[in-house]
Amino acid sequence: MVIKVLESIAPKPIRFLLKQIKMDAIVLFSRVYYLKEPESYSLHLRLHEVKHCHQWESYGIAFPFLYLSELMMVGYKNNKFELEAEAFARMKKAEKNLYVETYTMSNTDYVIKCYLEG
């Protein structure tokens, strides 16, 4: 299985938003925007954000509304989308056959490629 996700340093308006809500990353339309270079963040956070990309792909344009609804009802720590992303990151990090490659596409765009062998 191969997972590829486009990662970027967030443009100024998104960086401003991230700073205001005290977050390091946000997923918009299956792209992860980070406050600074993606490679400067932990593998755990990056895998967590990969899961959010999958959630966006699964739910489509409804995802941000579902996420915000869940956030308002149960808060951040009990948000099912956050719990799924955390579980995914822990599980993938624990797998012995996980390989991760990151490569730069431009000054602000990166790709994280995760794959499982065997």
Low confidence ranges: none
Query: How many DSSP E strands?
Result: 5
Report helical residue fraction: 40-55%
Classify the oligomer: single chain
Termini separation: 9 Å
Structural overview:
There is one protein chain. This protein is α+β, with helices and mostly antiparallel strands and 118 residues long. The protein has one domain. The protein is built from four helices and five strands. A five-stranded mixed β-sheet has the order 2-3-1-5-4. α2 crosses α4. The longest helix is centred in the middle third of the chain and has 17 residues. The protein starts with a strand and ends with a strand. The mean pLDDT is 86.
Structure, briefly:
The protein is an alpha+beta fold and 118 residues long. The protein is built from 4 helices and 5 strands.
Q: What labels would you give this structure?
A:
118 residues; alpha+beta; five-stranded mixed sheet; 45% helix; globular
